[in-house]
Amino acid sequence: MTCDMENQAELEEKTRLINQVLELQHTLEDLSARVDAVKEENLKLKSENQVLGQYIENLMSASSVFQTTDTKSKRK
Questions:
Q1: CB count, 10 Å around CB of 51?
Q2: pTM above 0.90?
Q3: If residue 75 lies in a helix (H) or strand (E), which one and from where to where?
Q4: pLDDT of the chain, 76 residues: tens digit per residue
Q5: H or E, element range at 16
Q6: In angstroms, how far apart are the furthest CA atoms of the chain?
Q7: E strand or H helix that includes residue 63
Q8: Residues 55 and 63 sit within 8 Å (Cβ to Cβ)
Q9: Residue partners of 51: CB distance under 8 A and separation at least 6
């Protein structure tokens, strides 16, 4: 009888470990998918940032407020 109880306990432990491994695999898959999504979003935001930076640079170069002034010519 003790042999059956030991086998039962061992089987329960194996089942518990298998379930834990499966749960960890699912968690890893979820985290991996999240990392991929964040990488994709990061690339999108970098691209948008470059576009906005270029747009701001173009606005600044087109505006007289941001142009460099020659102070010597204004003094004369």
A1: 10
A2: no
A3: helix 71-75
A4: 688 888 999 999 999 999 999 999 999 999 999 999 999 999 999 999 999 999 999 998 888 777 665 555 555 4
A5: helix 2-62
A6: 111
A7: none
A8: no
A9: none
